Amino acid sequence: MWSYHSGMTEYRLTPLAQSLPATVPFVGPETQERAQGRGFVARLGANENVFGPSPAAIEAIAQADHWMYGDPESFELRQALAQRLGVSMEHIVVGEGIDGLLSYLVRLFVGDGDAVVTSDGAYPTFNYHVAGFGGVLHKVPYSADHEDPLALFAKAAEVDAKLVYLANPDNPMGSWHEGAALTAALAHLPQGTLLVLDEAYIETAPAGTSPEVPLDDPRLIRLRTFSKAYGLAGARVGYAIGAPELITAFHKVRNHFGMNRSAQAGALAALGDQGWLGHVQHQVADARDRIAQIARNNGLVPLPSAANFVAVDCGRDGAFAKAVLDGLLARGIFVRMPFVAPQNRCIRISCGTTEQLDAFAAALPAALSDAIKS
Amino acid sequence: MWSYHSGMTEYRLTPLAQSLPATVPFVGPETQERAQGRGFVARLGANENVFGPSPAAIEAIAQADHWMYGDPESFELRQALAQRLGVSMEHIVVGEGIDGLLSYLVRLFVGDGDAVVTSDGAYPTFNYHVAGFGGVLHKVPYSADHEDPLALFAKAAEVDAKLVYLANPDNPMGSWHEGAALTAALAHLPQGTLLVLDEAYIETAPAGTSPEVPLDDPRLIRLRTFSKAYGLAGARVGYAIGAPELITAFHKVRNHFGMNRSAQAGALAALGDQGWLGHVQHQVADARDRIAQIARNNGLVPLPSAANFVAVDCGRDGAFAKAVLDGLLARGIFVRMPFVAPQNRCIRISCGTTEQLDAFAAALPAALSDAIKS
Predict the structure, then answer these.
(1) Distance (Å, rounded) from C-alpha A353 to C-alpha A351?
(2) From B221, which residue of chain A is nearest by alpha-carbon distance?
(3) A241, A326, B7, B53: most buried, per Cβ within 10 A?
């Protein structure tokens, strides 16, 4: 019988759960809006795709039978992906965004004390999952604003890492490696370390950015998403491509009925509208150019980007970039910035509409001026 | 450097992951349709709500901005739920269906070898999660087709369980306990065992089915969903209600950006349309009566149900019920059945439209006749 008049209840969480903080990898823009008491003028911080999904995807979502559970196999979507990629359906698992798939992948591989390698300042949600399953994260620095495959793989060898994370293109810097360079680097991936290749931004990158090794190469798993170029961040649809033996392991732990049914339909329709994707790719490229021009007009240095955002070097340290960012936030422009020096000399602006980038251009001079004074 | 010419790759899964089967708690209806090469005439097996969600929910989903990530706090939905329930938002966490929330809850509490208690034949997805985190599941039998709270709690005391699962109303039997009986039983819940009270079907149950202990009673956590009476199974929106200290723990492990944005909007709209809910409750009650009548017309015994389905006693053993079920499936009627004796003498039919239940009524005599002959 419970007695609980002695103050705080002692819930019997696992020791690991007990040790974890109640945290969030990113503060959402809505949270910031509520704190400010008003909405943002331009939502340019979450690397969403304001150009939106194919109209066919919007229609498919609207027409879906919401009363039915989604197909636990995501059969039609996997079939369409397999056809486009030239692999079998057994090479593909669909999940609740790359975040969801990363959670399953880390859970499959990482237990208490297992070593994992990533770049210092790379995707925090991956780190969140590693910590959440008791792994030990080893970080290597960026090299000239690029994630550094050879340094990552050398560290993986040193610590006997089970997983090494690499995003190509990179978030938050927008930098990328040519696929051929990654293919060459793979020769140095230690035996027994799986490369977790996050290709969330692959559709906005130049052709040839994905390494041209077979999609079932057992050394790596590729993670892709409908959240970026396909414009369906709200739908939460990602997929992983790898060797069937590895893909099958997801079925041990995934939430089989976890996929939103209309999201499955929306992703399928989005995949079928490659014309819209091409249209968005042009819009993204134009918006990157516009962000770069705005940066240069203000004496700042835009970094080359293969993603749907541009990192802009504010020319001083992290405190200064943070002041610029705060000035933009105060003026209703939602942007984010890297977490770690020296990348945190930059702010990161997601591609936006002409009107949104006009608002960014209008706010930036005052934000800079305030930051210089502060 | 990898060498992998020796046949199967040795992926370094955790020992636990290595030991798990690649399994699925339920085979989805689409999978069965693909195997049969044709669609079902009546989809009456997944306890979905064919009467569907509020038109306002459908509209909210269609109008959502799919290009934006969902609000990681599910602020508006939690606010509306808190207002309706008379608690604060800190008492509520929203997640990817009850399945998703069960996964987080088990992960928080259950590590290698930890004891968990449930009923033999109760919700398999809970068991899947317990196994998936290395827990040891102890099962107690149903008592007269009801889950047996006192037996569950006694077993929990015996094995020092961290969690004990109880669905009220129960799935797959449709039976239920009055809230007052559960309140009385709670006095026997051992200290340190958390009651996981699955109230997925609470909206189709008689008033007074939920125990009238405070919603922040630390002894239990309640799980509810928009998948059943609210008709949004495809949206994957569930919520848990409990003491803030317990609810906060979810933020340690949950996928903060895991909620589908349109699903959040749809659930909020569904919650706001209590008139539609009342309408559905009547339709469900009528359909239960109709299923019961069809059963009686065929000499079978319908069990009383507080859920959106009816378990029908086929009067013999599990093999016989399975033959009836197969006969229905072969005739395009998708139903399911309990897994465990003696409940598996039943088949379970979800509430359907008049046309679907007509199809069920038309198919049942032949299915029964075939089963008797076999």
Answers:
(1) 7
(2) A11
(3) B53
Per residue in B169-194, pLDDT tens?
Answer: 999 999 999 999 999 999 999 999 99
- The predicted model gives A106-122 an average pLDDT of 98
Pairs of residues, one from chain A and one from chain B, whose beta carbons lie less than 8 Å apart: 292
B26 interaction partners in chain A (CB closer than 8 Å)? 72, 256-257
Residues linked to residue B221 through DSSP beta bridges, in sequence order: B196
User: pLDDT digits over B139-158, tens only?
Assistant: 999 999 999 999 999 999 99
Cα distances (angstroms) measured from residue B216 to each of A260, B205, B209, B219: 30, 22, 17, 9
Residue B228 contacts residue B52 (beta carbons within 8 Å): no
What Å distances lie between residue B367 and B198, B236, B237, B370, CA to CA? 33, 34, 36, 5
Tokens in use for B54? 């509020």
Q: Which residues contact A7 (CB under 8 A, 6 or more apart)?
A: none
Confidence of residue A5 (pLDDT cuts 50, 70, 90): very low
Domains of chain B: 15-50+275-373 (3.90.1150.10), 57-273 (3.40.640.10)
Q: At residue A9, does pLDDT exceed 80?
A: no
The sheet that has A301-302: what strands, in order across it? A301-302, A309-313, A346-350
A275 Cα to chain B: minimum distance (Å): 18
Q: Mutating which of A260, A268, A336 best tests the B interface, going by the most B Cβ atoms within 10 A?
A: A260
ipTM above 0.95, yes or no: yes
